[in-house]
Amino acid sequence: MKKTPIFLIILSLFLTFIFAQEFNPQIDSLINQVSLDSLVKHVRILSGEDSVRIGDSTYLIKTRASTASFHETKGHRIAAKYLVKILKQYCPQVIEQTLLFRDVDTVRNIIGIQEGKNYPDKKIIVSGHYDSITGNLDLSIAPGADDNASGVASVLEAARLISQIETAYTIYYILWDCEEAREPGSEMFCLENIERTDLLAMLNVDMIGYDALDSGVVCIYCRDVVSLKLGRLLENIGPIY
Predict the structure, then answer these.
(1) Which residues of the chain have pLDDT under 50?
(2) Quick check: 97 and 172 in contact, CB under 8 A?
(3) What one-character-per-residue DSSP string does 180-236 give?
(4) Residue 7 and residue 29: Cα distance in Å, rounded?
(5) pLDDT (tens digit per residue) in 119-170
(6) φ, ψ for residue 74 (rounded to 5)?
(7) pLDDT for the residue numbered 12
(8) Quick one: residue 206, left, alpha or beta (phi over 0 = left, psi -120 to 50 = alpha)?
(9) Alpha carbon distance 55, 90 (integer Å)
(10) How far is the C-alpha of 87 from the C-alpha of 157, rounded, in Å?
(11) Is this structure's pTM higher than 0.85?
């Protein structure tokens, strides 16, 4: 996880500076503040390696499973509370976007909002899903360290760093729910306004903690011309830092 969170911070920061593609000392300073300890801490807590205290209780999150076929697990609910707790440290406004799914499961998107100074009505999304999945019917153990506690940790680290500065655009730090159950969480967000024109860009981070080849290479998936521009942006600014 040493290289990929830096990739997230670089791109996110450049987006906030009106897509600038030249060296900026403020951005460089924030990049140098990326904390591996902070990233590892979030992954360990979300995958049940370390316990976490929320309110008056201490929890060990062994699973974040919440699927279309099963009731929401306790670990999933605690994970959502943990994400709200962390985002409230960095964002003036944190909301839980909820949906009762198939009358049994509550789908919860956790959204931290950092309002932009110049263009508050224009938004950039930095996101990753926080639910996990298991290969069998035992939902009591589904730690999901790579898929996708790694992505969640990067979103939280982005919020920690970017919240230190004023941004031109409003930033949405979104932790999606139920990605492993055909994405009702992100679908709920989209269906709120299918014709919205306020979203400038979105960077979704998934499974960035495991580098099987030890290559340090980051894969960027672009589905259309618009997202390809973001890929090219990263390609252009990477060497600058």
Answers:
(1) none
(2) no
(3) GGT-HHHHHHHHT-TT---EEEEEE--S-S--TT----------SHHHHHHHHHHHH
(4) 14
(5) 999 999 999 999 999 888 788 889 999 999 999 999 999 999 999 988 889 9
(6) -60, -40
(7) 65
(8) beta
(9) 18
(10) 10
(11) yes
